[in-house]
Design brief:
With 124 residues, the protein is mainly α. It folds into two domains: 76 residues, Arc Repressor Mutant, subunit A (Orthogonal Bundle); 27 residues. 60% of the residues lie in helices and 11% in strands. It contains six helices and three strands. A hairpin with a 2-residue loop joins strand 2 and strand 3. It starts with a helix and ends in a 13-residue tail after the last helix.
Length: 124
Amino acid sequence: MPTDQLSAVFGALADPTRRAILARLIGGDLTVAEVAMPFPVSQPAISRHLKVLEGAGLISRRRRATARLSHLEAEPLRDATSWLARYQEFWDESYERLDTLLMTMQDDHRDGSPPGDREGRNEP
């Protein structure tokens, strides 16, 4: 996924209404009126949200008779998830280091040693 599209995807996902629209489209294609139904905003406002989602590649739109249907395009979400997954290892390692530090501090506290000094090096 080009960085430009990745930026567009994250920009589109930054808005809670657009995230809720995507969640509604998981159930299948919807007209603008169907998408707008649960939201306390105007249909033109929903249309603007749909335009942003379409620009980010997260939905496609097609005509069925007089209705315009919105369809979820999940591939950009997979690409964004893959990009985020690269940071999972970083966080896992950070939490492991934190767990190790906390266990060491708990052991020191039980031993009566000053924090971080299991061998008494900080004693006068």
